[in-house]
Design a protein that fits this description.
Radius of gyration: 13 Å
Order of helices and strands: EEEEEEEEEEE
Largest sheet: 7 strands, mixed
Distance between the termini: 40 Å
Strand content: over 45%
Shape: globular
Number of strands: 11
Structural class: mainly beta
């Protein structure tokens, strides 16, 4: 029953903002970490951002200062907004959950959503 589903990907122009959504089911965000990762062509998977069950947030350097991660525990949904999108942000973004997902230990992955930054 545990499932995470991403949405919000698509074509984004450089400088625009992106808002990604991860909807969780089968578990509560009150008790599990939930995080965003991305796979860029030819690169290893990168942890982009996460929010722990207690609400502690993390941002990777490439998005730090222009991103905000938040969650609504009652609705079991998490959001990531990235401002001033750059071509280097082009990647498939994945939502992952787990007791220690903020430490990189993901128990369940979403299907991914492709984000392409291009003018």
């Amino acid at each position: 029953q545990v499932e995470v589903v991403e949405s919000g990907g698509g074509l984004v122009q450089p400088g625009d903002s992106l808002r990604l959504t991860c909807a969780a089911s089968g578990f509560s965000l009150n008790y599990y970490d939930i995080a965003w990762f991305r796979d860029a062509p030819g690169k290893q998977r990168e942890r982009v951002s996460c929010i722990s069950s207690s609400g502690v947030t993390y941002y990777a350097d490439p998005v730090k200062g222009r991103s905000t991660i938040s969650k609504d525990n009652a609705r079991n949904i998490m959001f990531l907004q990235i401002d001033h999108m750059q071509r280097e942000d082009t990647a498939t973004y994945y939502c992952g959950m787990g007791e220690d997902a903020c430490d990189g230990y993901v128990e369940r992955w979403g299907q991914g959503t492709l984000v392409t930054v291009s003018s």
